[in-house]
């Protein structure tokens, strides 16, 4: 049985004071509640260290939103996996569609990041997903297959056990349009089938595959009850403690 995992991707939102307030509210909201999900927050880098202190002793875990694939060196503005680890990050989001489109990250770059994160002990939340054009022109499966095969190239079966896959159709991110639970399930099953081919049935059955793209308290229940949807990667709705909790509690 896979445990539901809900991660909040804050993106470039909340300064340090606002991050402290949101985490305090989230802690208050989650207190004394039965939570059937793993909960991860991914605040901006400036708030990681403080967030780690604030979530100490709670069930909330910490993730970053990006990293570089090198160990260290002359990469102005970048952060390494070991730096993220040193401030308490257990996870890092990699290959988010905003990184792919706005910052030009290729499948090859994302693969380097995935391998480096795994080597340095930070678990990747590995994002994939098609654009509306790709879906409508019938190349969705081809695009997703390429993202999975290239992004996870040289990742071993043991390492796969540490990877969370996040399927996020680009057309559903921040748009208010969600894939229907059936549409999402179909792609999740396809991704799991690919992982079976690339690794093994046993390994693929253990992989958490999150859905992302306009997940809200109102649609989380139906999405999370699909067979191959094991959680959510939440953008907009995680910036408010009540609505993030509304999604977390959809985990049965
Ligand atoms: P959204 O973002 O929930 O605001 O659509 C999801 C994401 O980009 O991870």
Protein architecture, described:
With 252 residues, the protein is an alpha/beta fold. The chain has one domain: TIM Barrel, CATH 3.20.20.70. 43% of the residues lie in helices and 16% in strands. It is built from twelve helices and eight strands. The chain has an eight-stranded parallel beta barrel, surrounded by six helices. Helix 2 links the parallel strand 2 and strand 3. The longest helix is centred in the C-terminal third of the chain and has 18 residues. The radius of gyration is 17 Å and the shape is globular. The model has no long low-confidence stretch (mean pLDDT 97). The site of 2-phosphoglycolic acid (PGA) has 13 residues, from strand 8.
Tags for this model:
globular, eight-stranded parallel beta barrel, alpha/beta, TIM Barrel, 252 residues
Q: How would you briefly describe this protein structure?
A:
The chain has twelve helices and eight strands. By secondary structure, it is of the alpha/beta class.
The shape, in one word, is: globular
In DSSP terms, counting alpha (H) and pi (I) runs of 4 or more, how many helices?
12
CATH architectural group: Alpha-Beta Barrel
Helix content: 40-55%
Bound molecules: 2-phosphoglycolic acid
Output the CATH homologous superfamily.
Aldolase class I
Largest sheet: 8 strands, parallel, barrel
Rg calculated over all Cα atoms: 17 Å
- Spatial strand sequence of the major β-sheet: 1-2-3-4-5-6-7-8
How would you classify the helix and strand content by structural class?
A: alpha/beta
């Amino acid at each position: 049985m896979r445990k539901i995992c809900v991660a909040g991707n804050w993106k470039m939102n909340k300064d340090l004071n606002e991050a402290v307030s949101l985490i305090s509210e989230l802690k208050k909201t989650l207190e004394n509640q039965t939570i059937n999900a793993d909960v991860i927050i991914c605040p901006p880098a400036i708030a990681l260290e403080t967030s780690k202190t604030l979530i100490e002793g709670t069930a909330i875990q910490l993730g970053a939103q990006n990293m570089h694939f090198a160990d260290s060196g002359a990469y102005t503005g970048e952060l390494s996996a070991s730096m993220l680890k040193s401030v308490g990050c257990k996870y890092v989001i990699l290959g988010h569609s905003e990184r792919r489109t706005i910052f030009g990250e290729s499948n090859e770059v994302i693969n380097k990041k995935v391998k480096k994160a795994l080597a340095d002990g930070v678990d990747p939340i590995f994002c994939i997903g098609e654009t509306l054009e790709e879906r409508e022109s019938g190349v969705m499966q081809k695009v997703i297959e390429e993202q999975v095969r290239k992004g996870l190239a040289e990742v071993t079966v043991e390492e796969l056990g540490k990877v969370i896959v996040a399927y996020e159709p680009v057309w559903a991110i921040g748009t208010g349009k969600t894939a229907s639970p059936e549409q999402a399930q179909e792609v999740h099953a396809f991704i799991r089938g690919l992982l079976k081919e690339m690794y093994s049935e046993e390994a693929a059955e253990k992989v958490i595959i999150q859905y992302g793209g306009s997940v809200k308290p109102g649609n989380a229940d139906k999405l999370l009850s699909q067979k191959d949807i094991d959680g959510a990667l939440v953008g907009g709705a995680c910036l408010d403690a009540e609505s993030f909790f509304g999604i977390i509690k959809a985990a049965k």
